[in-house]
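Give me the fold.
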Amino acid sequence: MRTLRDGSGEYQVSVVGREIKEGVALWSRTLALPSETEFAQRIKGQVITTLERRGKFLDFSLSKDHLLIHLRMSGDLRLETAVDENGQFREYRLHDRLALAFTDNTRLVFNDTRKFGRVWLTAVPEEVTGRLGPEPLDRSLDGEAFFQMLTARTRQLKPLLMDQSFLAGLGNIYTDEALHAAKLHPLMNSRDITPAQAEKLLKAIRGVLNEGILRNGASIDWVYRGGDFQNHFRVYGRKGELCPECGAKIERLVVGQRGTHICPGCQALK
């Protein structure tokens, strides 16, 4: 999950405790629910009490509701400060989709170049996130439980791991990296996994997620340039390069309509 930064992009900031003076949908389709009119009316005067994550959703707990934001491929958040004592801000930037102005003369802006991101204001967040699977970083999920989850399905590993109803939060990059770290082929059938392999896979998933968080995610195109994880990929995007583990040439294949990178030496399909 990307770090929420101020306009300078230099350090992490918090919006917890700020009171919302105004909410504005700058592009109507960014707001999944409710209507623009109801959104503006309901969110005014609410205070952000906590900020958490559920899968790929940011969950802003408010005084009465929850504001859920899914950044999708190109969404980003920035916190701005008013340019004068009257609470005047700079003009919105290109691709700004939604904004929350706070009573302390700051403003949180959701920018989304590709328009895939969505925002929900709801009193019952489970209406949006209720179908998500368990969190991979939740310590109540152990190797035995993960083994039971995997072998209860009959699916190829990569599509299953990316199914948000199975496990919340894994995307294409992190799945490739985790499967390589666990030395498992993405086409392996989940029912064939052993308890030891399941334990190793869960550890690998947690490892790559924690490393990604530490490095502020990955910058793989021109949209988002805040992360460093791309400089530490083991296999993703490295077709033709040598595997850091065994020296074999990394290959690219398509699994579940997604570009997938593997090491044929480390991840042989048995």
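The longest strand covers residues 75-81.
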